[in-house]
Amino acid sequence: QVQLVESGGGSVQAGDSLRLSCVASGGTFESYAMGWYRQAPGSIRESVAAITWDGGRKFYEDPVKGRFTISRDNAQNTVYLQMNNLKPEDTAVYYCATLKWFPQGEPDSWGQGTQVTVSS
Question: What's the whole-number average pLDDT of the chain?
């Protein structure tokens, strides 16, 4: 199985930017489509973005479209989520996951999550 570790979260003000990273180990990273999810307090875990194994196609949910960019570096076994113009409603724990299918296939493995807090 693949182990995933997210990092890069923090507390920022509205309008600021963060870049999240997810490093994979224990598997063949380049074989997997990858996704970013988030879960706010009292809410279910929701999809944010996804990327194919080769980075050729990307998917974004409407709330982050135009603000977030997903990318990957297979040589570094890492997927990124560049988050620009952050809004308070982006506050959540962000998780990365391997996906069975692009863009919203069932996740196979989850990271532990990284907290993003955006204040007004």
Answer: 95
